[in-house]
Amino acid sequence: MDDLFGAGRDDADGTDDPGEDGNGGADHSGHARGQARSGAGSASPRSPLAVRMRPRTLDDVVGQQHLLGQGSPLRQLAAGSDATGPAGPSSVILWGPPGTGKTTLAHVIAKGPGRKFVELSAITAGVKDVRRVMDEALTARDLFKTTTVLFLDEIHRFNKAQQDALLPGVENRWVVLVAATTENPSFSVVSPLLSRSLLLTLKPLTDADVEGLLQRAVSDVRGLNGKAELSAEALAHLVRLSGGDARRALTALEAAAGVAFGDADDIDAVDTDTAAGAGTAEPVTIQLRHTERALDVASVRYDRAGDQHYDVASAFIKSIRGSDVDAALHYLARMLEAGEDAKFVARRIVISAAEDVGMADPTALQTAVAAAQAVQLIGMPEGRIILAEAVVHLATAPKSNAAYMGINQAIADVRAGLGNGIPAHLRDAHYPGSKQLGHGKGYKYAHDAPHAVATQQYPPDDLVGRNYYEPTANGAERDIATRLERLRKIIRGK
Asked: pLDDT digits over 237-247, tens only?
């Protein structure tokens, strides 16, 4: 089976670089995390597909084109020059979700001329490891004219003392630091290190990016070597489940290919000896059922650009509005499992909090906004927990659309031409000549009145007595209704 996957093929230079990003790469391929290691290392014949498909140049990198233009800092680093010229920083901090190419970019940079690659993981490395690397880097620079590229994975796990240990090497350019993090560096990286490095933000891969990566992996000699092909349904399923993570997509493809080749062997459809040899056998088609069996995940019928997108989102919101928390969680799960953008889901939850829960539970909007911000900060898959908490709050909360209906009615009146002018006593009386126009005359300062509520006219003449907000008897609006009745009587002098 290894031969069918083309696992024996190495990079053109006779090596293959293990690592973590599927753009590509897997999880360090047998090397202990946190242990410093130099060089690219030889690829095992059983290296995962994600490792074998790692790009060897920046031109092979999928996505991140906003960082890879001609003359960009990353291209200058990969070519062996400083990131922003002789006086600029030559170290970078890569911030982005898993599987977007952080490790890949570090390996490509390390392949520049006169480079030595060393990798540390912040999970297990300590200050002693960092200082040892710095000492060795200084020796390599002074004695052998070799630049050390230090890739530090998950730098956000380093405490302040550990990050401070990096400063001499970065500031004096003993090393080119390429640090990777999935958390916002503004909160997790010390300011001195941030100021000495370029902060580059990586974006999740688009569906088109992942689709191209999968097609390349199927045909490339380092991948499946043309011995398999993907049906349209299987390809769409893999893209959908990848969530913009290249490593996840390639790992899923490899698993599905294993199932497909196993089925072919069972029915004698493929002579594996022939397939591993001259490559004359018909390619095996990876079907949707192979991806489902390999991943133990059923294909979710969901088109993010079609009817299913709108139908499921509509059912989701209506379930929240109808206070069916179980149905709401079901539709949330369907959207997330289908690869829907978590930010889209969070936006819908915020809207629902204001439109459907409203003032019956004013804390619902606070929960929804906090959830949207937290999902932006945390990302997926952990973001599902945050979204679920917000959905449970909204679905079980008392409901009121009174504020929503109120603004709609007010807008309708404005569009109908109602609300002519502004009472003179409410107009701006601060500019010269305004008092001669009667502006501000007779205005009652609310704080001078009992309970800070004064009797006076606020709306235009043609809207006096018009009520837009009619609170319900649900939740917190019960108390608001009682208070509002008293307020209107005082203000209107009734």
From this structure: 888 777 778 88
10 Å CB burial of residue 272 (0-12, 13-18, 19+) is middle
At 244, is the secondary structure helix, strand, or coil? coil
32 within 8 A of 112, measured Cβ to Cβ: no
Q: Domain 207-295, what fold?
A: Helicase, Ruva Protein; domain 3 (1.10.8)
* DSSP secondary structure code for residue 38 in this structure: B
CATH superfamily of 415-492: DNA polymerase III clamp loader subunits, C-terminal domain (1.10.3710.10)
Q: Do the Cβ atoms of 1 and 258 come closer than 8 Å?
A: yes
The correct CATH number of 307-396 out of 3.40.50.11420, 2.40.128.20, 3.20.20.140, 1.20.272.10 is 1.20.272.10
Tokens at 87, concatenated: 């006086």
pLDDT, tens digit, 9 for 90 and up, residues 92-126: 898 888 778 888 888 888 777 777 888 888 888 88
- Considering only residues 349 and 461, tell me which one the structure prediction assigns the higher pLDDT: 349
- CA-to-CA distance for 91 and 32, rounded, in angstroms? 24
- Are the C-beta atoms of residues 83 and 73 closer than 8 Å to each other? yes
- Confidence (pTM): 0.51
Could you tell me how far CA 57 lies from the centroid of its own chain? 25
Q: Are 371 and 349 in contact (CB under 8 A)?
A: yes
Classify domain 55-201 at the CATH superfamily level.
P-loop containing nucleotide triphosphate hydrolases (3.40.50.300)
Distance, in Å, from the CA atom of 318 to the CA atom of 323, rounded to the nearest integer, reads 9
Residue range(s) in the chain whose domain bears CATH number 3.40.50.300: 55-201
